[in-house]
């Protein structure tokens, strides 16, 4: 599974991190990014995608 965060859309609200802390983290620009060692089995990615207020998260 591939997930990406559109850095232009992300506002760094942290909803995705609260939903999937083993997948997402904030980068140096205080925007969400997918962790290098992301554990996709540990959370509901659909919930993170659906709850993103700017629709910045998508599956490839």
From TrEMBL:
PROSITE patterns according to UniProt: 4FE4S_FER_1, 4FE4S_FER_2
Keywords linked to the UniProt accession: Electron transport, Iron, Iron-sulfur, Metal-binding, Transport
Domain 4Fe-4S ferredoxin-type: residue ranges: 1-29
Molecular function as annotated in GO: electron transfer activity; iron ion binding; iron-sulfur cluster binding
SUPFAM superfamilies per the UniProt record, alphabetical: 4Fe-4S ferredoxins
Free-text function comment from the UniProt entry: Ferredoxins are iron-sulfur proteins that transfer electrons in a wide variety of metabolic reactions.
Name of the protein in question: Ferredoxin
